[in-house]
Write a structure and sequence with these properties.
Layout: E1 3-10, H1 14-25, E2 30-34, E3 49-52, H2 59-79, E4 84-86, E5 89-92, H3 96-106, E6 111-113, H4 115-121, E7 131-134, E8 138-141, H5 142-151, E9 156-158, E10 162-167, E11 172-176, E12 179-188, H6 194-199, E13 210-217, E14 229-232, E15 238-242, E16 249-253, H7 271-284, E17 294-300, E18 309-313, E19 316-320, H8 330-341, H9 356-362
Parallel strand pairs: 1-2, 1-12, 2-9, 5-14, 12-19
Antiparallel strand pairs: 3-8, 4-8, 5-7, 6-7, 10-11, 11-12, 13-16, 13-17, 14-15, 15-16, 18-19
Helix pairs in contact: 1-5, 1-8, 2-3, 2-5, 2-8
C-alpha cells in the first residue's frame, strides 16, 4: 500500500472521521486508516445514540458544549438529514446545584423545577426531588453521525491495522501490514489503542480503558408521553435517553465497567451489569419492562482526569481520552485536531487538554 498524503489519520471512530473530514474540507489529501470497519463492535463510537447536553459542573465545559452545536448543524446540512433530535434533559441528585451554578455562570438556558413541578411535568420519570431542566439538549443518532462523517472522507482504508508510527522530523511514516503511508503529519485517534501505538516512539499517552455496558428496555404498552433524557449525579451516575426512531429507551451507569484490554474485548452481556441495569429500570422507568430487550458493550478510552487529550508532539497529533463523554464534541474536536495537524496554534479552549498537564501533575 505504499502511499503518500498530506495527513494520515489513524482510527476510523468519531474523532478520526471528524478530523479527516475537517482536513479534506480544507483541501488536503488525507488517508484514514482503520484496523477493522467503521463502527465495528470493538470501537468506542458504535451504537444507536448518545446525549448532547450542556449540563456540566464546570462553566468551561458548558461553553464548549455550546460551541459544539454549530459544527453539528453544519454536518446536518451537509448530509441532508437531522442527526441531533431535541429532547428535554433532566439533571437531578446531589450534583444538581453544581451543574446549575456552572450553567448559570456560562449563561446557558436552564430551569430549576421543584419536586412537585418535576413530578407534574414528567410523570413518566419518578425523579423524587427537584430537577434541572435543559431545554437545549438533544439525542444524537450516533450510527447515522458516523455514516455522515465517513461519507465526507474520500479515502478510508479499512482492514488497515497500524503496526508503528515514526516521526523523523520531516515526515511521518505510518506502518501497516500492507505497506507504509508517508505523510507530512499524522493524527492518531485510535481510542484505547492510542497509548500503545505511540509508546514505541517515546510519546506517553495515559489511558485506562474500561468495558462499559448499556441496556435497552421496551415499553410495557403503547408509548405514552415522550421520554426525556436524564442523568442523576450522585454516588452512582445512572442515565437514560430515548432512541431516535425506536420505542426503546437506552440506560446505563457512567463509568461502571471493569478495566479492559482493548484488543480482547468480551462483547457478551455481563450478568452483574445486566442486573444493575434492570434495577435502574425498575427505579426510574415504571412504564418499561425492566428486563433488558438487549445489551451492548462499549469500550471507554479514559484519561486520568476524564478530560480529553488534544495535543501535538512533533508531527504527530493526538486525539484521545474521550472518557465516555466525547461524542457530543466530535465535529468540534475534529476541527481542533485539524488545526494542529496543519501547524496552527491550539484553540484557546483546547489548551486545557494538552499532555503537559500530566507532566505538571507528576512534578508535585
Amino acid at each position: 500500500m505504499d502511499a503518500r498524503c498530506d495527513v494520515a489519520v489513524v482510527g476510523g471512530g468519531l474523532l478520526g472521521l471528524a478530523t479527516a473530514r475537517a482536513l479534506a474540507r480544507r483541501g488536503l489529501a488525507v488517508i484514514l486508516l482503520e484496523q477493522a470497519d467503521v463502527g465495528h463492535d470493538g470501537c468506542g463510537s458504535k451504537g444507536s445514540c448518545r446525549i448532547f447536553r450542556l449540563g456540566y459542573d464546570d462553566p468551561g465545559w458548558v461553553r464548549m458544549a455550546e460551541r459544539a452545536r454549530e459544527p453539528w448543524a453544519e454536518l446536518e446540512e451537509e448530509c441532508g438529514r437531522p442527526l441531533l433530535h431535541p429532547a428535554p434533559h433532566l439533571t437531578f441528585g446531589p450534583g444538581l446545584d453544581a451543574v446549575r451554578a456552572a450553567m448559570h455562570s456560562a449563561g446557558a438556558p436552564h430551569e430549576l423545577l421543584a419536586a412537585a413541578e418535576a413530578a407534574a411535568r414528567f410523570p413518566q420519570l419518578p425523579v423524587g426531588g427537584p430537577a434541572l431542566l435543559e431545554p437545549a439538549s438533544c439525542v444524537i443518532s450516533a450510527d447515522a453521525a458516523l455514516r455522515a462523517l465517513a461519507a465526507a472522507v474520500p479515502d478510508i482504508r479499512t482492514g488497515a491495522a497500524v503496526t508503528g508510527i515514526a516521526d523523523d522530523g520531516r515526515r511521518v511514516t505510518v506502518r501497516t501490514a500492507s505497506g507504509p503511508v508517508t505523510a507530512g503529519a499524522a493524527v492518531v485517534c485510535a481510542g484505547p489503542w492510542t497509548s500503545a501505538l505511540l509508546a514505541a516512539g517515546g510519546i506517553t499517552v495515559p489511558s485506562a480503558p474500561t468495558l462499559e455496558q448499556v441496556g435497552y428496555v421496551a415499553p410495557r404498552a403503547e408509548p405514552g408521553p415522550a421520554m426525556p433524557i436524564f442523568i442523576c449525579h450522585g454516588a452512582e451516575v445512572p442515565y437514560g435517553l430515548p432512541v431516535p426512531g425506536s420505542p426503546l429507551y437506552k440506560i446505563g451507569f457512567d463509568h461502571s465497567g471493569p478495566p479492559a484490554d482493548p484488543g480482547s474485548q468480551e462483547q457478551g452481556p455481563d450478568p452483574v451489569l445486566s442486573a444493575r441495569l434492570s434495577g435502574l429500570a425498575r427505579r426510574y422507568l415504571p412504564g418499561f419492562d425492566p428486563e433488558l430487550a438487549r445489551a451492548e458493550r462499549c469500550v471507554y478510552d479514559n484519561s486520568p482526569d476524564e478530560d480529553f487529550i488534544v495535543d501535538r508532539v512533533g508531527r504527530i497529533v493526538i486525539g484521545s481520552g474521550t472518557s465516555g463523554h466525547g461524542f457530543k464534541f466530535g465535529p468540534l474536536l475534529g476541527e481542533w485536531l485539524a488545526d494542529l495537524a496543519t501547524g496552527q496554534d491550539a484553540d484557546p479552549a483546547a489548551r486545557r487538554f494538552s499532555l503537559g498537564r500530566f507532566r505538571a501533575a507528576g512534578a508535585h
